[in-house]
C-alpha cells in the first residue's frame, strides 16, 4: 500500500478536492476535519509509525494547525508536515519551518507544485523510516549478544587482533574466533571494519 497523505483542514470541500487530487496521482490520502481527530490517529501509531506526510491547515478551530504541529512534535512523530496557509499567515508559516516543519504552501497554489512538494517529503519520510529501521535492527542485534560476545565486540572495534583479545580476556584465540563468528553473524557483517562502520552509524 502506498504511504498515506494526511490532509487536515476544516474546509470539507477543500479536503475532498485534495484527496481527489492525490488519488488521481496514485497516492493514498486520508482526510481529517480537525486537529484532534488527526492526533488521535497519530497517537494510535506512536512508536510504530508508517511513513506518511501531513498537509496541515494553519488556521483551524478548535485546535489550530500550530497547536496540532506542536502536539505531533511532542509525540516525536517523524512525519514531514507541510503547512497550507493564507496570505496573511506566511510569516507564521516561515516560523514553523524554522521550528521543524517540512515546508509551507500559500493558497491558492498550483496542483503540480503541491504534488511535487508532497512527493519530495514522502521520499524524505521513506529514507528516514529506513534509517530508523536499520538503527532498530542494530539495537536488537546488540541486545542478542552474550556478555562475552559484547566484550569481544568491544575489543574488535578497537582494532585488536584475536591473540590480543584472547590475552585481554583470558581466553584462547580459538574461543575468540568462535565468538567473533557469532558476532559477525548476528550483526550481519563480514569484517571488523564493517562492524565498526555499522556501530558508528546506528548505535545510539
Looking at this protein, list some descriptive labels:
Arc Repressor Mutant, subunit A; about 200 residues; 2 domains; 5-stranded parallel sheet; Rossmann fold; alpha/beta
Task: Write structural notes for this entry.
- The chain contains nine helices and five strands; from the N terminus they run βαβαβαβαβααααα.
- With 204 residues, it is α/β, with parallel strands linked by helices.
- The protein has two domains: 4-132, 3-Layer(aba) Sandwich (Rossmann fold), CATH 3.40.50; 144-202, Orthogonal Bundle (Arc Repressor Mutant, subunit A).
- A five-stranded parallel β-sheet has the order 2-1-3-4-5, with helices on both faces.
- β1 (4-8), α1 and β2 (28-32) form a beta-alpha-beta unit.
- α5 (111-143) packs across α9.
- The two termini are 31 Å apart.
- The relative contact order is 0.10.
Q: Determine the strand fraction and express it as a percent band.
A: 5-15%
**Strand order in space, largest sheet:** 2-1-3-4-5
Q: What are the low-pLDDT stretches, counting only 5+ consecutive residues below 50?
A: none
Specify the biggest β-sheet.
5 strands, parallel
Q: Please, how many domains?
A: 2
Helix percentage range:
55-70%
Structural class: alpha/beta
- Overall residue-averaged pLDDT value: 87
Full CATH superfamily name of the largest domain: Response regulator
The total count of helices amounts to 9
Outline of the structure:
It is built from 9 helices and 5 strands, in the order βαβαβαβαβααααα. It is α/β, with parallel strands linked by helices.
Secondary-structure blueprint of this entry?
Layout: E1 4-8, H1 12-24, E2 28-32, H2 35-45, E3 52-57, H3 65-74, E4 81-85, H4 90-98, E5 103-106, H5 111-143, H6 147-156, H7 162-169, H8 173-187, H9 192-202
Parallel strand pairs: 1-2, 1-3, 3-4, 4-5
Amino acid at each position: 500500500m502506498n504511504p498515506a497523505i494526511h490532509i487536515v483542514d476544516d474546509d470539507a470541500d477543500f479536503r475532498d478536492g485534495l484527496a481527489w487530487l492525490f488519488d488521481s496521482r496514485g497516492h493514498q490520502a486520508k482526510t481529517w476535519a480537525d486537529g484532534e481527530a488527526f492526533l488521535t490517529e497519530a497517537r494510535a501509531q506512536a512508536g510504530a509509525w508508517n511513513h506518511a506526510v501531513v498537509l496541515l491547515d494553519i488556521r483551524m478551530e478548535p485546535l489550530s494547525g500550530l497547536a496540532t504541529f506542536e502536539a505531533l512534535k511532542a509525540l516525536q512523530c517523524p512525519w514531514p508536515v507541510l503547512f497550507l496557509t493564507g496570505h496573511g499567515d506566511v510569516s507564521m508559516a516561515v516560523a514553523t519551518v524554522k521550528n521543524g516543519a517540512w515546508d509551507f504552501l500559500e493558497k491558492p497554489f498550483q496542483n503540480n507544485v503541491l504534488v511535487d512538494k508532497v512527493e519530495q517529503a514522502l521520499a524524505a519520510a521513506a529514507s528516514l523510516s529506513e534509517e530508523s529501521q536499520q538503527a532498530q535492527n542494530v539495537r536488537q542485534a546488540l541486545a542478542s549478544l552474550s556478555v562475552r560476545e559484547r566484550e569481544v565486540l568491544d575489543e574488535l572495534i578497537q582494532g585488536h587482533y584475536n591473540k590480543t583479545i584472547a590475552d585481554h580476556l583470558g581466553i584462547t584465540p580459538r574461543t575468540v574466533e568462535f565468538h567473533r563468528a557469532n558476532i559477525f553473524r548476528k550483526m550481519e557483517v563480514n569484517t571488523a571494519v564493517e562492524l565498526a562502520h555499522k556501530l558508528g552509524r546506528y548505535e545510539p
